[in-house]
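STRUCTURE:
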């Protein structure tokens, strides 16, 4: 019996070691090749005309707070287009007065009956059509620029490019949900910015995204995924972006900030919508991103299984995870600084374990869930 147990133990050790090595290699290859070369955007001064576009539905409170910050931008040549997407909270009157007070503001109004089952993509399309300038900069009504240099920095990043991917961290509470949202936002940014830096852009965030009018209409707008509620940012960027036409802007002063969801139920609903949209990604991106997440999950499951089967060798399991965290920390510490996420670097094991649990739960819950569509 002792011999049998020893044989099983050796087998478990061998399998866990081999699996851990393979998964760690996958992890390190991705980290070294995609996440270790984030740099500040180089300084430039440009004055290209820019149309800032915001779609708003019942966002009166946020508009009153954030629009003054946009109008106070240190940039001389921009217009602000706000699409009133069937609001009934007083937004219409507020925007009407705003346009009278500042000639840079242009209001596009979509009445309730006009927007029936059409959603944000229809509103954005109306705003783009109304834009006077070629270069378009997008954010949301609940977002505020991190500084008065936001437009200048995003516009400077265009240079000879037609798409600019910005970054938009979320303001969170100091609790478990806040930690999860904070790390998930950072990690998503790390991925799409890192991949774009390597020449394979696959998404952007609508809270801070820029592209040209020509690019939008050459792609026939959102036509290919108009039936899906979300995707005006990631699915669109995936269709039009490539290594030759895409730039990134991750200067701290170019960030836009917004409040995160405060309750588990609202956040879960939001994430299900986002994750279901990812099912519409191109096959190569689903494969690469899915395999990366799967490697994270399987590594933790392998270590956990090892601890259950051979609990007296717990220190070997800890050694495997420690090796993972040390190399991971070494690579992401600079991105943590660039993306204003130093707390992630300070407590990486906590965030990494929390993020793995998130991947497990939402991966299972949404594996066979289709993207929400307009019926």
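SEQUENCE:
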């Amino acid at each position: 019996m002792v011999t049998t147990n020893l044989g099983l133990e050796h087998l478990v050790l061998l399998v866990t070691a081999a699996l851990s090595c393979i998964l760690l290699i996958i992890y390190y290859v991705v980290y070294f090749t995609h996440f270790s070369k984030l740099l500040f955007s180089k300084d430039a001064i440009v004055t290209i005309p820019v149309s800032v576009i915001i779609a708003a539905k019942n966002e009166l409170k946020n508009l009153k707070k954030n629009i003054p910050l946009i109008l106070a931008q240190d940039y001389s040549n921009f217009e602000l287009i706000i699409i009133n997407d069937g609001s009934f909270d007083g937004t219409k009157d507020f925007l009407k007065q705003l346009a009278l007070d500042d000639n840079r503001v242009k209001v596009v109004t979509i009445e309730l009956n006009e927007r029936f089952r059409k959603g944000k993509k229809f509103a954005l399309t109306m705003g783009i059509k109304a834009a006077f300038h070629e270069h378009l900069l997008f954010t949301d009504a609940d977002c505020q620029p991190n500084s008065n240099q936001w437009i200048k920095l995003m516009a400077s990043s265009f240079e000879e490019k037609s798409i600019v991917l910005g970054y938009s961290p979320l303001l969170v509470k100091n609790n478990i949900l806040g930690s999860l949202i904070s790390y998930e936002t950072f990690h998503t940014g790390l991925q799409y910015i890192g991949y774009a830096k390597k020449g394979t852009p696959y998404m952007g965030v609508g809270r801070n995204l820029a592209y040209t009018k020509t690019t939008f209409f050459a792609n026939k707008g959102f036509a290919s995924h108009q039936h899906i509620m979300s995707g005006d940012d990631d699915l669109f960027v995936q269709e039009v972006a490539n290594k030759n036409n895409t730039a990134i802007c991750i200067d701290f002063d170019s960030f836009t900030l917004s409040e995160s969801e405060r309750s588990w139920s609202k956040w879960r609903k939001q994430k299900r919508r986002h994750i279901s949209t990812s099912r519409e990604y191109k096959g190569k991106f689903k494969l690469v991103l899915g395999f990366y997440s799967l490697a994270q999950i399987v590594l933790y499951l392998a270590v956990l299984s090892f601890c259950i089967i051979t609990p007296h060798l717990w220190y070997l399991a800890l050694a495997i995870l420690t090796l993972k965290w040390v190399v991971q920390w070494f690579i992401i510490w600079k991105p943590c600084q660039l993306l204003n996420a130093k707390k992630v670097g300070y407590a990486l094991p906590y965030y990494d374990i929390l993020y793995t649990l998130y991947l497990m739960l939402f991966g299972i819950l949404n594996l066979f869930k289709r993207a929400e569509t307009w019926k």
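REMARK: The chain has a mean pLDDT of 84.
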